[in-house]
Every structure is written in C-alpha cells, then in structure tokens.
Amino acid sequence: MSKFTKEMVDDYADKLLIGLTDEENKMVLDEFDIIDKNLDLVTQIPNISEVEPMTHCLDDFEYELRDDVVVESVPISDLLRNSDETDGDEVQVPKVVG
C-alpha cells in the first residue's frame, strides 16, 4: 500500500503552483512507491540503527587550506569595455520584471 495518495500529491502540487495531470500524478506516485520500497530495504539491514551517520563519504578525508595569494585584478574599465551600456562602474541590463 502506498504511503502517498493521489489527493496528497495533488494538494502538494497545488501548494507549489504546479498543477499535475492524472498521468503526471500517477508517475509521481509510482516514483514514491519505488522510494518507499528502497527505504524499506534499508530499514531491514541488521543493526542499521546502531550505525553512526557519516559526515563525509570518505573516512580518511583530509584537506589542507592553501595560503591566500594576492594577485592583480583586471581593471574595471577593461572589463566594462565588453558592455554596451554602463552607469559608472555598473553594467546596465534590460528590465526583466514588470
């Protein structure tokens, strides 16, 4: 038996403002069913509740921070030469929101 229902999926889709067709709803329910079955398999692993969660996928993960190196940056005037319209040190772009 599925833990998710058609009504639940429709309700979540409405809340997310993404209406679903009946076909899309069935596809989502089928995907959740596969996820549920896989999670059920994980819970059947002996002593799984005693396993400590990992913070990183590699047990021997080590890293070394490198020193910051100051380098000369490109002058803004050179960067702005690629722009058609500028306002001071800023690039003007078309308005995209009404």
Q: What's the helix count? A: 3
Structural class: mainly alpha
Strand ordering within the main sheet: 1-2
Q: Can you give the mean pLDDT?
A: 88
Q: Give the overall shape, derived from the CA principal axes.
A: flat
Query: What fraction strand?
Result: under 5%
Binned, the helix content reads 25-40%
Whole-number radius of gyration?
A: 26 Å
How can the largest sheet be summarized? Answer: 2 strands, antiparallel
What is the total tally of β strands?
A: 2
What series of H and E elements makes up the topology? HHHEE
Whole-Å distance between the termini?
A: 47 Å
- Low-confidence parts: none
Task: List descriptors.
mainly alpha, 98 residues
How would you describe this protein?
This protein has about 100 residues and is mainly alpha-helical. Helix content is about 40%, strand content about 5%. It contains three helices and two strands, in the order αααββ. It has a two-stranded antiparallel sheet with strand order 1-2. The longest helix has 22 residues. The two termini are about 45 Å apart. The mean pLDDT is about 90.
